[in-house]
Amino acid sequence: MPAVPVLAPRVLLMVFDPPGPGGLPLSRAMGRNRVEGLVEGYIADLQACSRGTVRYPVAARVDLPIFPPKIDGFRYTLETYRAVLEGRQPPHEPDTADYLAILAAGDGIGRVARGEIDEIWLFGGP
After folding, report:
1. Is residue 105 classed exposed, middle or buried when 0-12, 13-18 and 19+ CB atoms within 10 A define those classes?
2. CA dihedral 63, 93, 74, 87 (to 10 degrees)
């Protein structure tokens, strides 16, 4: 049986983590899981599911201390975000993220075109 090639798509992590109460990153202020642990677990799951044939190296990481923009230009503030999470106001509509603006923020398209990365993974709050 021929050897199965190992694939190693290079990943760009884009982490949206705006300042929260007390100036802490919102993820820490809200007690969320660390991105590093989530990434390690996800990579391990993909490696296990592929029987070791896919191994994802993280080629680059971009930390963005902002809320990602919506397709109509809206961007949550800490106050509006908390109001939605606490049920004091409905989520913004349209809820679709502006992926072109997100890719531009991390030079995602340029990095793919230059052969630096193969995939982009986005991390942020709910």
Report:
1. middle
2. -70
pLDDT in tens, 32-88: 999 999 999 999 999 999 999 999 999 999 999 999 999 999 999 999 999 999 999
Find all residues with CB under 8 Å of 115, minimum gap 6, and list them. none
Distance CA 114, CA 73 (A): 28
93-117 pLDDT, tens digit per residue, is 999 999 999 999 999 999 999 999 9
Q: Where do the domains of the chain lie?
A: 11-123
What ranges in 1-126 are assigned the alpha helix state H?
26-29, 35-49, 78-85, 99-105, 108-113
The tokens 């072109």 sit on which residue?
A: 100
Query: Do the beta carbons of residue 126 and residue 97 sit within 8 Å?
Result: no
